[in-house]
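Continuing the series of single-chain predictions for the mutant panel. This is the parent chain; the variants come on the following pages.
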Amino acid sequence: MTVGNRRMAFLVLTGAGVIAAMLLSWRYSHVSPAAARHDPYEAATDVPRELIGYQEENTVKVDVPEPLGVAVGPADRIYVAGSNAIDVFHPNGAKLRRVSTTCSARCIAVGEDGMIFLGAGGAVEVYSETGEFLARWPGLDERSVIASINLRKDDICVADAGARVVLVYGVAGNLKRRIGEKDESLRTEGFVVPSPYFDAAVAPDGMLRAANPGRHRVETYGPEGSLAGWWGAPGFGHAGFSGCCNPAQFAIAFDGRFITCEKGKLRRVKEYDSEGRFVCYVASTEALGPGTLPLDVAVDVRGRVILLDSADKVLRIFVRTRRAG
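Parent structure:
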């Protein structure tokens, strides 16, 4: 092919590409109203009233800097952790006190004795009820990002999003076991954690539950760390988990129910029973508003759902209204 012919072929192909791009642009900029109504995101925000089983009881403004973590402590007091401070609230939302810390906390757990455990970067920091610094437990290595802490009896479950493993500590900081690393003998495939949101907790039945957000499910692990089962699936539907990696956060109620939070365009909070069956919405995207920042969540002794909305810097407290689902 001569130089002139090659140049002509190039011009023809370029022109064809431009025309194709223009046609595609026209096609997607002129979506019919009927097609728009089939947008899965839009459809997922339309939640039937009968599937909403909670109502908002109270909204509490939070002024702790960069609030990211919430937990319920003794007497149903609510603890909100942020940058260099923890605010403590009465169950009715009245602020009781502020505890100063030396770290920027991403997550928090509070023991029955009032001991405070904070996830701070790649380490866990321990404080007394009055805010006295007691200890610092380092993470696994330089990759560690402590994404959540949950307590049950003598187990402190620390979800490390950087190392993609759940660490189970004793109250003195002794590492008891590592759970979730890829191991064929334990049937564990490993956690898929594309973003720094990762949660784990011991359920009332004594088994550890951990979110595997990249696989859109909640997994159950036996005492020795073997994978015993899971529930959950990707999807925009009411029972599914949307986006790249959800659930981002969850809490387990005293009767074994799960409260899950999804991040991304669809911010929604849902209730599942102890077996992972969808029950109802706590709050839909329409109630919360779209956004990318996740919601941290806790459940108090009365079964109220405590949401920390980091985007709006408020606590939103929800109470159950009726059986749904």
